[in-house]
Amino acid sequence: MLAMHSITNANDLNLRLDSTLQELPAWVVNIEIDRPGNELATLFEQEPLLPGIILTKNQRYEGMISRRIFFEQMSRPYGLGLFAGRPIESLYKFLQPQVSIFAEDTPILEATQVALARSPQLVYEPILVQTQSFKCGLVDFHQLLLAYSQIQVLTRARLQEEEEEARMARAGFLDLQHNYTRLLQNEKMAALGQLVAGIAHEINNPISFIYGNLSHATQYVQELLYMLQSYQQQYPHHYLAKQAEIKASELDFIMEDLPKLLSSMMVGANRIQEIVLSLRNFSRLDEAEFKRVDIHEGIDNTLIILQNRLKPQLNRPEIKVVKEYGNLPRVECYAGQLNQAFMNILTNAIDALTESYELSVLSRDFVPMTQNPLTIRIATEVTNHNQIIIRIADNGPGIPESIQKRLFDPFFTTKSVGKGTGLGLAISYQIIVEKHGGQINCVSAPGKGAEFIIKLPLMSKK
């Protein structure tokens, strides 16, 4: 019996990278194995492109004879005479051809690689594709190669597309990285601007005091020098005593006021020196490497830098800082970066307390600050796990649980437009977790303030 699919050229197929053998055109030409051999020749003559014929016995698969093997045998001396009138089974047993059988869900790429790995005598033989219902079809090896080449073209095109996408992704990533770096730099510059403004305000008071007293100090010194010169020029004349009496009242005042004036100027100069030293320790310009430092010193220096923001403002009273320091050993860290993290967290606490006070003043439930003063509490301790804990808490409005999950996300902020970039806590998280292998989390509830808990290892894994 003869049954045949309509053969489609592989060029017309819409193949994909994962296409399987069932998508290829297949020949289904069956003949019973007890039929005479000359009927094989008739079938091959009827279909010049027929790659082979499937042999069946009682309509069940028995084997396959390809066009190439059949005509090679028939072209030999006495080949046609020996097998033309005999059953096909005798020819099949004599030839014992090897058949490559694949399941219909085998990928074309995989089947082609297996077919190409056959011996040179069998490499051009058709392959047998078997369905799940055990029906068989023949796929010409040249059709298989054509489909394989099409998929290779698709693969190269896909690779080019992916390379282009990867290139665009890399370019986008570089742009994103550049923008993020620029935003980080802007955040640092904004923090630096606030820092400089606060320091300028802090230094301005003692400088103004010193500058204002310099004129009086200069006048006092000039008068004392004048009197000394007068004594030197007129000594030992008797009328010198009378001139001294004239200047006596002024001299007494100068002798009383000048030490006070110099002492006040000294206090101002010490204050300036303290601020400058705190600024240097805060930035740790001379300690950029990973080294052991005093955490309490870093916190204190940060508080000195923020002193101007803690003082009473036009829109709120003073913010008190309560220190509950434990006995901490020196900790290995990048001191300057860690101080920056402390500043970001303390600045957020100050902003939260300021906003809370402004809202409470406008509300009907306003409570005088004498009963509930604005407070930031800083506590430190050492745990048994070779790490220190730093707690920075405020008695502000607190943070809702839904917002706590996003506190350390870059660009997330609850502040109004123009008052925050959403990078302060993200930078702090990066410094504490990524740079120092520590932990930071927030414990808060609405109306009960917020507490940031920082855990740092005493000894760095680095």
Report on this structure.
- There is one protein chain.
- The chain is an alpha/beta fold and 462 residues long.
- Among the domains are: 10-139, CBS-domain (Roll); 309-457, Histidine kinase-like ATPase, C-terminal domain (Heat Shock Protein 90, 2-Layer Sandwich), CATH 3.30.565.
- 51% of the residues lie in helices and 15% in strands.
- A five-stranded mixed sheet has the order 8-10-11-13-12, covered by helices on one side. A three-stranded mixed sheet has the order 1-2-3. A three-stranded mixed sheet has the order 4-5-6.
- A hairpin with a 4-residue loop joins strand 10 and strand 11 (387-394).
- The longest helix is centred in the middle third of the chain and has 94 residues, at 141-234.
- The radius of gyration is 47 Å and the shape is rod-shaped.
- It starts with 29 loop residues before the first strand and ends in a 5-residue tail after the last strand.
- The relative contact order is 0.07.
- The model is unreliable at 1-8 (pLDDT under 50).
List the helices and strands and how they pair.
Blueprint: E1 30-32, H1 38-46, E2 52-57, E3 60-66, H2 67-74, H3 79-83, H4 88-95, E4 100-103, H5 108-116, E5 127-130, E6 136-139, H6 141-234, H7 240-246, H8 248-283, E7 291-293, H9 295-305, H10 307-310, E8 320-324, E9 331-333, H11 335-362, E10 375-382, E11 387-394, H12 401-404, H13 424-435, E12 439-444, E13 450-457
Parallel strand pairs: 1-2, 4-5, 8-10
Antiparallel strand pairs: 2-3, 5-6, 7-9, 10-11, 11-13, 12-13
Radius of gyration: 47 Å
Strand order of the largest sheet: 8-10-11-13-12
CATH architecture of the domain at 309-457: 2-Layer Sandwich
Roughly how much helix do the residues carry, as a percent range? 40-55%
Name of the level-1 CATH class of the domain at 309-457: Alpha Beta
Mean pLDDT rating: 79
Shape label: rod-shaped
The CATH superfamily of the domain at 309-457 is known as Histidine kinase-like ATPase, C-terminal domain
Report strand %: 5-15%
CATH topology of the domain at 309-457: Heat Shock Protein 90
DSSP helical segment count: 13
pLDDT < 50 runs, ≥5 residues = 1-8
Query: What structural class do helix, strand and pairing data support?
Result: alpha/beta
Sheet with the most strands, sense and barrel status: 5 strands, mixed
H/E topology pattern: EHEEHHHEHEEHHHEHHEEHEEHHEE
Number of strands: 13
* Span between termini: 80 Å
